[in-house]
Amino acid sequence: MKPLIILEIANNHMGDISHFKRIINTYFQLTRQYKSILDFAVKFQYRDLDTFINEKFVGSNHSGVKRFESTKLSKAEWNKIIKFCRNKFKLICTPFDEKSIETVIKDKFDYIKIASCSSNDWPLLEHLSKKSKNKKIICSLGGLSEKEISDTISFFNNRKLNVKFLYCVGKYPSSASDLNLSFFKKLRKLHGDQIMGYSTHENPSEKITSAIAFSIGARIFEKHIGVETRNYKLNKYSTNPSQLEEWLINLKEAMIRFGNVKSRNEGLKLEQSNLLNFKRGVFLKKSIKKNSVLNVKDVIFQFPSSPNQLLANDFSKFNKFTLKNDVKKGEPIFKKNLRFLSEKDALRKIRDKIKLLSSNAKVVIPYNARIEISHHYGLKKFSQYGLSMITVYNNHYCKKILFLLKNQIHPEQFHKIKKETFFILHGKVKLETKKKNSVKFKSKIMKQGEIYTIQPYEVHRFRSIGNEGAVIEELSTEAKVSDSFYLDKTIEKNKSRKSFISFY
After folding, report:
1. Could you tell me which residues come within 8 angstroms of residue 391 by beta carbon, excluding any fewer than 6 positions away?
2. What pTM did the predictor assign?
3. Does residue 68 register a pLDDT over 90?
4. Quick check: 343 pLDDT over 90?
5. Which residues pair with 7 in a beta bridge?
6. Higher pLDDT, 376 or 481
7. For the packed helices 146-158 and 122-131, what is the interaxial angle rounded to 10 degrees?
8. Is 460 in contact with 477 (CB distance < 8 Å)?
9. How many Å is the Cα radius of gyration of the chain?
10. Spatial distance between the Cα atoms of 53 and 65, rounded to a whole number of angstroms
11. Domains, in order of start, for the chain
């Protein structure tokens, strides 16, 4: 979605419908050049003054009362303004009382806006929630404590309303030190993308705040606007057209520099092409025969490299290179002359399956966890024989999370020291056990929630049953690498049967 700029007119129309139209036309012309990258809305305020103002204060010198009464428009005038604006901007209105909520809904505004002063006006919000189930709502959070913000967000969420929240500083005007955009960042961390925007009341000449707010996640902005004339002056927090244009220019520049993932990926090829000129190529330190596995001790990494030459960047413990033909000492090695096998690609695919399995099982994985992948007969046979595990703790006692993929088998083994308990968290497991010198296995089908303790020297093998795989919580005495003994000695001879990859 394009960022939304809310142009708040408030009472800056001064109760003069011709001046109102002047404001609309001025900002319509100003914003047209930005509509390819930004959406614009004008915002009005509704107050049913006959019921909103206490009768004792009608006609008083109270600053708010005086302002509202002096700028009052009739319903017929509002209707003319709405019609005038409809094809120029999206329309937003802030109702300050229950009767005005009814009017906003009848007038079919695109959004209903809740002002900061009303964001914990529970009677007003209750009325809104009953009348506005299908309406888009934007709510400002100025002047609220962190607890009050959570209460307001919970109110809307519990009623399943379509609402986005604006971080706001309810100080008119707000100084640079009042803005505290770090708190906006904190709110987004706490509440995610529900905290969508930033309602600003800073000095109208302020230029960079929009750029900063955009960079930390703001996608809705609210600015008070107006047009100054000989008869009508602007207040200290309302922006004139030239000030808004400077503000928009800075926002546009921030958006250009922020970019997006798609444009980053598109530019990556050019980056890679440029950097290729500075990468070291692989050259042979000695002559090597066809079908030999390329070893790091056989090569030297030197500059410059040639197009399609094997690079130092390609060398990894996860990559295996086999020569298709003889190569002489000092010669560069080209990719076309190699057979390539990537263990990392296979491990990533396994990790993706483990992630899906853990998600389905609703198992919480520790931060910075790494997966230990046991491929007893090699990665090519892992889907049939193998096991993945995450060690949570291993000191005095041990806790592991074991993952079995669809119909995956863990071969026969026993421990001389370790005593371990299996607790089935997800799926079904066929567990087979026997005493070391016994011939016959005892079989047990274990379901979610069941427990079995395996004693030292008790031979055991197990497999998942069904298509969903299985997750086992293993609790044991301290686990030692040297305490796993397989009945198939070819497994123990395979010293590279374990691989590790980060879960995240």
Report:
1. 372, 398, 399, 400, 479
2. 0.65
3. yes
4. no
5. 42, 223
6. 376
7. 30
8. no
9. 34
10. 7
11. 6-259 (3.20.20.70), 275-333 (3.90.1210.10), 345-502 (2.60.120.10)
